[in-house]
Amino acid sequence: MSYKGNFKVWRGDADGGDLEDYVVEVNEGEVILDIIHRLQATQAPDLAVRWNCKAGKCGSCSAEINGMPRLMCMTRMSVFSESETITVTPLRTFPVIRDLVTDVSFNYEKAREIPSFAPPKNLGLGEYRMKQQDVERSQEFRKCIECFLCQNTCHVIRDHEENKENFAGPRYLMRIAELEMHPLDEADRERAAQEEHGLGYCNITKCCTEVCPEHIKITDNALIPMKERVVDRKYDPVVWLGNKLFRRSGSRH
Amino acid sequence: MKAGVGAPDRAQISERTYRTDRWWAYPLSTGGILLFFTAYALVRYFMNNYYWAPEEHYLTPLYSPCVNAACVPGSSHFGTFIPSYASWIPLGIITFLVLLGFRATCYYYRKAAYRSLMFSPAACAVPEPAKKYSGENKFPYVVTNGHRYFFYAALIFACINIYDAVLAFHGKNGGIGMGLGTVIILINVVALVAYTLSCHACRHIIGGKLKHFSKHPLRYRYWQFVSKLNPRHGQFAMISLFTVIITDAYIMAVSADWITDLRIFN
Amino acid sequence: MVQVQVERFDYDVIVIGAGGAGLRAAIEARQQGKKTAIISKSLFGKAHTVMAEGGCAASMGNVNEKDNWQVHFRDTMRGGKFLNNWRMAELHAKEAPERVWELETYGALFDRTKDGKISQRNFGGHTYPRLAHVGDRTGLEMIRTMQQKIVSLQQEDFAETGDYESHLKVFSECTVTELIKDGDRIAGAFAYWRDSGKFVLFSAPAIVLATGGIGKSFKVTSNSWEYTGDGHALALRAGATLINMEFVQFHPTGMVWPPSVKGILVTEGVRGDGGVLKNSDGKRFMFEYIPDVFKGQYAETEQEADGWYADQDNNRRTPDLLPRDEVARAINSEVKAGRGSPHGGVFLDIASRLPAEEIRRRLPSMYHQFKELADVDITAQPMEVGPTCHYVMGGVEVDPDTASSIVPGLFAAGEVAGGMHGSNRLGGNSLSDLIVFGRRAGLGAAEYIDALEQRPKISESDVDGAAARAVSPFDFPSSGQAENPYSIHAELQQSMNDLVGIIRKEEEVQAALDKLAELKERAKLVAVEGRREFNPGWHLAIDLRNMLLVSECVAKAALLRTESRGGHTRDDFPGMDSKWRNTLLVCEAYDDGARVTPKEQVPMREDLLELFELSELEKYYTDGELADHPQRSGS
Ligand SMILES: Cc1cc2nc3c(=O)[nH]c(=O)nc-3n(C[C@H](O)[C@H](O)[C@H](O)COP(=O)(O)OP(=O)(O)OC[C@H]3O[C@@H](n4cnc5c(N)ncnc54)[C@H](O)[C@@H]3O)c2cc1C
Ligand code: SF4
Ligand code: SF4
Ligand code: FES
Ligand code: FES
Questions:
Q1: For the stretch A12-35, what's the b/e string if a residue is b when 16 or more beta carbons lie within 10 angstroms of its beta carbon?
Q2: What average pLDDT does the segment C206-222 reach?
Q3: A237 phi and psi, to 5 degrees?
Q4: According to the model, what pLDDT value does residue C218 have?
Q5: What is the structure's pLDDT at A178?
Q6: Would you say residue A251 lies in a domain?
Q7: Within 10 Å of residue B75's Cβ, how many Cβ atoms?
Q8: Of C133, C124, C3, which is closest to residue C55 (Cα–Cα)?
């Protein structure tokens, strides 16, 4: 049941590094993170890795396994064959700190740039009334565990460092969509989504959706609907004219 | 200074990707299909022939509606309100532009094309070759924001296709009849309708734009219906691509008398 | 001597811990106008609270109108077997609804009832459906909501000062190793950055501890690596006291297979939504385990139990939802009697009770957890579950109203504080505890500062000392074999699990204490390799000291309490003893270890006592204590 598995793990820091070979015992039912922990306890006590819950709930243990961005604690060894050599590297979009740990502060900075929930002013504690069907869309986005795998995979910044400044990334564009669809949020967010947070950079190639461990349909349910809302506001001449003529804020309510 | 995954401060890893799966399969096959379809469509449009099977009343979706004065008799179900023009301009130019516009601005085909034709990116976590990238912010990509207008047009064309399909129940000896062609046309229409209704712009217009579903129960129901189809939009897009080609090819063959239509009755 | 290079920061309030309690405390302190810092061992938004699944208890009465704070209070006291700090239980029951509603104003999206209010679900020990929830990821919602509230406060500060962090700053991946005092008052905290290994000194007159629990001292646990009892140990070393440390909650349903995920939690929501426990004979065994104190409050037949989900007025609830300690013990007994599942647990069956679609909708993360980690489809097969170390009821002894410990300037809230839950915590009462007492701690700290005449000072020698202790694991011992922190940790977990676990005996606890003494000596020889940047071995070496100290409190208190109550079960003293009800075991730092002494608790206020039937009180109280009860003295 248990066997010796071959691993290549990236060791190093901002000054450089390389893959190192390890042979580690693998037991039934284990995940990649178990292997990394066994490495720490037996062969590489100072191997840096970030993790918390080991249950796919906190989004700390993001890394790239055989080139695919994944959670180490949710990647079961049984998906690999016993003879395969498994490569584990840190996320490749963010600055590396050491070994498998990267500096994800980019994401926290972007989070701060998204205007917060704008609560209704006339409602007091306990007076909020929202229907289940009205909160469901935003609830899907709130499943996000902030693993930043989508941010890491999105080619807009992965392949183009210079876009980091102007692009919030899928996780935070989704946050805008979440607030936009929140039944009691009072702010207007479409224009800023396009003009300040870079929605237009997204070419809907769906890599964010592909890697999301929470299976959130980021592209279909957040990004494309946001793009459509932006069209309402910014690009659709008919809607624009209608709004001008009839002074309505669109049929959004 | 190296760019992309090689940017300074990032983990220095020489390999572009360590993916071991067949990530290139999707862009390769999709790219092939897209190129093939484009080539096929161009050939067919410039052929300017074999689009109407007069006995069976089959009209190919590529030329429908045929509204040019030069259309062969019987093929114009809506009259010929456009005078004939230079013969090197395809008869089906309007249909061509609508179909092309609809599919080219479709969210699914955009993804397919970006991935397979522009490698932007070819597959997730596989570096793209382009040095600069500005997404859909600039011309020509910004045009994709007009997708909903193509959707409206496509919706009308879908209705026309349904009408064509009804006419395809024409018996060779008059009255009602049905042949293999009718079945093919019918399947194509179903695929087209599924593709059109599952469109993201449709999903938005029908209800997605609302903030409070609870205040619009009917539109909420429509939205739920479209939302059920929408996750398979990509599949419908590909399926309908093939059904269109097959339908057109079949009608061309019947019209050119290369084969005879297999009649089910009359 | 190490070259001490220390970054320095000045704040009014420092909150150690970015879980629910810490974030709520920080929000409050900042809203009171105090310059506040949040320090956390992990990244912002990853604290343990994200793992909470089932819900947050608050008697809003949205689903059953009969619910109110009095009922919630009674349930809490019963759950804790009347050993709770009644004032905390009272404040908690009264304030929880407002705190939950407040989260809505921060943007939280709880599941809704038909009429648009916050939906509430059933949970063990709660009379009515009471837990506000979002599917089975309530903790995530709470953390994210408060994280976003903090961002929103930072945006306000940015608009005013041009600096997001001018009044409220988060120091993530920064671990506090020592608290520093000026005389008897708190003056600051010493910490290191996990990424660079560099040192940081915070000077602040008020510190709120919100560091969570101690579960990582046990082998099978639902807790993460963060739960090394840092706050408990920091408080002890600063001169504060801990109470109730013998009470450790073993959650009845943790995963038992595969081995690498053993201990991961299976939410009580599974049972709240209809799941039932069965043994290998397919029998619903919980009916046999209704203890005397709960006789009459739970269904006695399967039929009645099943009827309860739909009609709660005419049926009593299923014993599957007894308080956690009872269920955990019952499972333990079934397994010991040979009626367990193949991997040493029992079966938890929801597949045969709800349609697959409904299970996926109500328990999405459970569905995924089993699918992805154990290859089990819970809509088709039963789960295998067994007890897992989950929560520590014990913690810093605090003033109920201000959350202040006995050390001036040191506050505690959340799992690290003690008293609120008595001998056993009800599910869902922790998340509400976090927001109720998190807020109170923030307020308490602000008021303390306002009343302060002079800012305490930090002496340089304390800083040098703290730095030296922090880097000492890099020095290889001059004599003897160097120890590996990972092996010591593994041994500690094994012995706490086996000897001070769910069922305890005098000899075993004694053996654990001997082992602890040995490990403590060996821990002095721990040495680690590598550099200070993100070095997990070094971090563990530092955490080990805390785990050892706190484990000593647990074991010593467990040895002293010669009865079984809530989260403390003594095989040699199986009954609950009324004489022990009012006794708290207080732990304090002593020499190089800990010392535990008994202490009487303040008797419950009259009007609260009257909320209970005399007949119920008689099950818990001694005759003497009830002599003055109006129903008795009156008759
Ligand atoms: C799997 C699981 C499910 C649960 N489900 C529920 C539920 O449904 N309902 C319920 O009410 N309760 C539940 N609980 C219990 C509840 O989640 C916890 O008791 C609660 O979240 C504790 O919150 P806290 O704010 O006290 O601490 P935590 O959220 O644990 O936060 C502790 C913080 O302190 C920081 N910290 C610790 N030590 C240091 C140090 N030395 N220096 C700096 N920072 C430090 C950590 O980094 C962390 O940020 C559950 C617990 C678990 C494990
Ligand atoms: S769909 Fe858009 S946001 Fe998502 S990965 Fe692709 S480009 Fe990035
Ligand atoms: S959206 Fe998904 S992939 Fe992105 S951060 Fe959230 S959980 Fe991770
Ligand atoms: S450790 Fe929490 S998601 Fe992997
Ligand atoms: S047709 Fe594909 S998205 Fe509209």
A1: bbeeebebbebebebeebbbbbbb
A2: 95
A3: -65, -35
A4: 94
A5: 98
A6: no
A7: 24
A8: C133
Render pLDDT for C312-359 as a digit per residue (tens, 0 to 9). 888 898 999 888 888 998 998 999 899 999 998 999 999 999 999 999
How would you list the strands of the sheet with C120-121, edge to edge?
C56-57, C131-132, C120-121
CATH number of A167's domain: 1.10.1060.10
Strands A68-71 and A96-98: unpaired
The pLDDT tens digits for B215-224 are 999 999 999 9
ipTM of the prediction greater than 0.90, yes or no: yes
Shared domain for C272 and C203, answered yes or no, is no
Q: Which residues of A166-187 are buried (b: 16+ CB within 10 A; e: fewer)?
A: bbbbbbbbbbbbbbbbbbbbee
Phi, psi of A242 (to 5 degrees): -55, -45
Domain termination residue (choose one: A102, A117, A146): A102
Among residues C458, C483, C518, the one where a domain terminates is C458
If one counts the domains in chain A, the total is: 2
C431 is in an annotated binding site: yes
Which helix (H) or strand (E) element contains residue C607?
Answer: helix C606-609
Q: What is the dihedral of CA A175, A178, A180, A183, to 10 degrees?
A: -150
With a pLDDT cut of 70, the percent of chain C lying above it is 99
* Residues at CB less than 6 angstroms from ligand 4: A 51-54, 56-61, 71, 73
Ligand 3: residue whose CA is nearest its atom 3 = A212
Give the residue from B13, B147, B149 with the most A CB atoms within 10 Å of its CB, the best one to mutate: B13
Structure tokens at C623: 């005759």
Strands A85-89, A3-13: pairing is parallel
| pLDDT-derived band at C1, boundaries 50, 70, 90 | very low
Q: Do B10 and A96 touch (CB under 8 A)?
A: yes
Question: Among partner residues C107, C224, C490, which is closest to A54 by beta-carbon distance?
Answer: C224
CB burial readout C134-156, b (16+ within 10 A) else e: bbbbbbbbbbbbbbbbbbbbbbe
Examine the fold and report which residue of A55, A77, A102 is the final residue of a domain before the chain moves on: A102
User: Is the pLDDT assigned to residue C534 strictly greater than 90?
Assistant: no
* Measured distance CA(A127)–CA(A120) in Å, rounded: 11
Task: Identify the chains in contact with A, defined as 3+ C-beta pairs within 8 A.
Answer: B, C
User: How many Å lie between the alpha carbon of C506 and the closest alpha carbon of chain A?
Assistant: 33
Does residue B174 or residue C521 have the better pLDDT? C521
Mean pLDDT of A144-166: 96
Taking only residues 5 to 24 of chain A, the set having a beta carbon closer than 8 angstroms to any beta carbon of chain C reads 13
Tell me the sheet residues that pair with C39: C16, C171
Residue ranges, chain B, pLDDT below 50: 1
Domain with A53 in it: 2-102
| Residues facing C9 on adjacent strands | C202
Q: Flag if C134 and A115 touch (Cβ within 8 Å).
A: no
C437 belongs to a structural domain: yes
Find out whether the beta carbon of B51 lies less than 6 Å from any atom of ligand 5: no
Domain span at residue C617 reads 605-634
Candidates A10, A94, A229; nearest CB to B209 = A229
pLDDT on residue C600: 94
| pLDDT 10s digits, C474-491 | 998 887 788 999 999 999
Q: Residues of A numbered 120-179 whose beta carbons fall under 8 angstroms of chain C's beta carbons: which are they?
A: 123, 125-126, 128-132, 135, 138-139, 142-146, 179
